């Protein structure tokens, strides 16, 4: 970590991130190789499409695709890939989007994949002028649902890989690809938060999309990889809806450097360090009244475990969400992964910590749990009010 923390100067709280790679917390710790490349390019002019041309083979090498380019985010990648499937390389059509009159514009997606990553997946599809066609039910999709939805207006199909999606009862990627390809429908995979850069294209996807700022530790960006013609058609959207999703030279070289660093990263060493953090936290919490820490694997198979902290409020004297809020309010603020906190558990994610922060997290957990245990009442505020407060506070921004 740098000696001087810029957050002090800005009057921002020095948050410790044990929630994962969150846009709301500034994504990830950018790797030094990317920072150096970004600093080097910022004062220079470049021919921007040539720069993208240089990045394409690097993306291709790491993903196994034929080509690739960098855009603003994985979310932008969804819109651009869908737009490319609609317009092809017709520049007049590209400029006309999101008006798709006279073009194929239906995009198939399993209902159990229509989730929110901070914004709705289906909105990223609709931004391109496409009409999402939701197939199956939230927890049950079969081959016949996908087959039955394909018609002469089908432009593409989107498949989402995420801990957010329903993890059972849906059509798997290979079968999804098989059904779509039988009717010449290209498959776009949203793999924003996946460690595996090759598997989805290898499984037959035509385009795979990644966030540059998640596991890769690049600047905020998105990577579009896959078949050359489809990637090119997505790239051409920079003449249209892609303009508002553009990235500068710094993000382009930053992602390229992060991809190259990925090839030499000590993946096993990082995993071992993260496992050490989990063990420290588990030992810290084990035996405390009303607290049950359990190490759990990542639901989509990323090489990452998290610590699930289960709370019994009657014994711990606090609910999981009140504990999460107390940790976030305190000094230093510790932000936990609380997507499913209504079940009285949250997760500690070890992959975005600077060395030494694991100890601070352990100390803060102990302090808040001790304080709660010593309270005469059980701290249990209303979850509905907690949610309402979050949106109310957003709606008051910037005050
Ligand atoms: C994070 C995420 C996104 C959004 O990625 P950005 O690059 O932040 O736009 C989309 N889909 C999934 C599954 C994600 O996890």
UniProtKB/TrEMBL annotation:
Keyword DNA repair: no
Recorded GO MF terms: L-seryl-tRNA(Sec) selenium transferase activity
N6-(pyridoxal phosphate)lysine modification, residue list: 214
InterPro entries found in the cross-reference section: PyrdxlP-dep_Trfase (IPR015424), PyrdxlP-dep_Trfase_major (IPR015421), SelA-like (IPR018319)
Cofactor(s) essential for the protein: pyridoxal 5'-phosphate
Keyword Glycosyltransferase: no
Gene3D superfamilies named among the record's database cross-references: Type I PLP-dependent aspartate aminotransferase-like (Major domain)
Pfam families in the cross-refs: SelA (PF03841)
Keyword field: Plasmid, Pyridoxal phosphate
Family: Belongs to the SelA family.
Protein name: Uncharacterized protein
Species of origin: Sinorhizobium mexicanum
């Amino acid at each position: 970590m740098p000696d001087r923390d810029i957050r002090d100067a800005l009057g921002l709280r020095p948050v410790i991130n044990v929630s994962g790679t969150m846009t709301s917390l500034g994504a990830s710790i950018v790797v030094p190789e990317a920072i150096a490349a970004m600093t080097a390019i910022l004062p220079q002019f470049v021919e921007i499409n040539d720069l993208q041309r240089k990045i394409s083979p690097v993306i291709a090498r790491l993903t196994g695709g034929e080509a690739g380019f960098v855009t603003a985010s994985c979310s932008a990648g969804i819109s651009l890939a869908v737009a490319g499937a609609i317009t092809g390389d017709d520049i007049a059509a590209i400029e006309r989007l999101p008006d798709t009159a006279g073009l194929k514009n239906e995009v198939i997606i399993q209902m159990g994949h229509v989730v929110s990553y901070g914004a709705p997946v289906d909105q990223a599809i609709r931004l391109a002028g496409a009409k999402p066609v939701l197939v199956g039910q939230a927890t049950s999709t079969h081959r016949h649902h996908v087959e039955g939805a394909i018609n002469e207006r089908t432009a593409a199909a989107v498949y989402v890989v995420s801990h957010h999606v329903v993890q059972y009862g849906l059509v798997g990627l290979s079968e999804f690809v098989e059904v779509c390809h039988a009717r010449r429908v290209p498959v776009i995979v949203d793999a924003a938060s996946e460690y595996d850069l090759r598997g989805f294209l290898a499984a037959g996807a035509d385009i795979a999309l990644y966030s540059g700022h998640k596991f890769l530790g690049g600047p905020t960006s998105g990577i579009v990889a896959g078949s050359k013609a489809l990637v090119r058609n997505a790239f051409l959207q920079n003449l249209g809806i892609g303009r508002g999703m553009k990235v500068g030279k710094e993000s382009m070289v930053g992602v390229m450097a992060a991809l190259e660093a990925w090839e030499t990263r000590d993946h096993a060493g990082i995993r071992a360090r993260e496992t050490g953090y989990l063990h420290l936290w588990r030992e810290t919490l084990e035996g405390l009244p009303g607290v049950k820490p359990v190490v759990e694997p990542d639901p989509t198979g990323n090489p990452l475990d998290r610590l699930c902290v289960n709370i019994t409020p009657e014994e711990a004297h606090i609910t999981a969400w009140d504990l999460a809020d107390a940790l976030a309010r305190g000094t230093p603020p510790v932000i936990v992964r609380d997507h499913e906190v209504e079940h009285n558990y949250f997760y500690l994610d070890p992959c975005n910590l600077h060395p030494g922060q694991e100890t601070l997290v352990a100390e803060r957990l102990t302090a808040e749990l001790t304080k709660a245990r010593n309270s005469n009442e059980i701290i249990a505020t209303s979850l509905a009010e907690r949610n309402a407060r979050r949106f109310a506070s957003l709606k008051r921004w910037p005050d």
